[in-house]
Amino acid sequence: MNYIGQILPVDGYRITLKEYLPVDYAKSLTHLYQPMIGIEAVSLYQTLLHDIELQEDLTPQTHHTLMNYLNLPLDEIYQSRLKLEGIGLLKTYKQSGDSRDLYTYELQSPFAPDKFFKDAMLSQLLFHHIGQQKFNLLKSHHLRTAVTDSAENITASFNDVFQTFTPSAEALKDIPQEKSSSDEVQLDFSWMEQMLKQRMIPAGKVLTSDNRRLIYQMMVLYDLETHEIDKSVLWALTDENELDTEEFKVACHDLFKAKNSNKTIRLTENVQTVKKKTAEAPSTKEGMLIQELETISPKQLLEDLSSGGHASEQDMKAIREVMTTQGLPAPVMNVLIHYVLLQSNMKLSKAYLEKIASHWSRANINTAKEAMVFAKKEQERFQKDMKRKSTYNNRKQVSKEVVPDWFKERKHKQPNQPAVKNSNVTKEQEKIAARLRQYSNGN
Prior knowledge:
Elements: E1 12-17, H1 25-37, H2 39-51, E2 61-62, H3 63-70, H4 74-87, E3 90-95, E4 102-107, H5 113-116, H6 120-130, H7 132-142, H8 158-161, H9 169-173, H10 190-198, H11 203-206, H12 209-222, H13 226-236, H14 245-259, H15 271-278, H16 285-295, H17 298-305, H18 313-326, H19 330-343, H20 350-362, H21 368-401, H22 405-411, H23 417-440
Parallel strand pairs: 1-4
Antiparallel strand pairs: 1-2, 3-4
């Protein structure tokens, strides 16, 4: 990927730090983050962190300063910055100016080692980067002071010790007993709730806030489809209908290996993500539509096309079966849904979906843009064929309507004239036959 020209040496930057760093943040950066993002990205983080103290005046520094500090070209600094943003250690804000741009780099606090291993995605990524032996060593070292699972947590809460007013008896009934998690993933789990209900499994017991976050992270980490996540959840359920998190992680990893036998789990550059960050916003309606179809889910697309109504279970079942059977990505499926609805008067025919989906699957279409271009070409080819057939039929019909003048004159003659003509033709034929016999006898 070419990163040259994304930022310029004369562009300025400022640095902010919104929260305090944990005491052992350096251990986290060196042993936990560095194996995943590399030494250059960690060096950039450390440089920005210690560069805050030099910002005594309001004059921003230029990126040429970073080039001198790190002894790296600007394109590699930009690549390291993207890694920090992707792993959650940096937020970047840009202000465009006439002569140069100004960037504000907001450093994010890394996880402390004990909290790092509680994050399912980061811990799994580290496991795949450094191997099981080194991973177990680091985990046991940083979690050796953790409280055993058999101990009971008897810590008093704020409400147990303090109160700011004396509540009435009615108000006491409305005080919530559980804290809501602020880290709950904003993801639509209605498809999984429906799947669990069909199997008579209590969805509320399985889809807790922690489990939802874990499921979302495994979907992103292993690039799994919804039906694959369904299989993993069902595989990891205990007899008490509780999700065994370790079994769930193993099931997700096994599914990934089954699909990608030659691939390993490692942090690499996401080319599509970088293109989205650097590319300009689409200026045409078609470009905006393609961008929307790339990011939206098929369920949300159906609801948007039905003016906010809920997508029917029958339509969702048809879409799910077509996607799983033909292996179409969600953006391609969105274009297919849009195309079928336009062609069939807003009716979603499963047979029509399967017919086109099999064609697109053989054509190896992977993005919404490719699907849109392919659909246009097919539509143009179909219209040309219909026009050619229509022209041929018209010509054929015109040729049938051409009638010779002698035929028209014959129709206007009297009814007895054809009989006379026929007798004359018979006599003429007899004369010709007699001449042929005479010729054959040698006379």
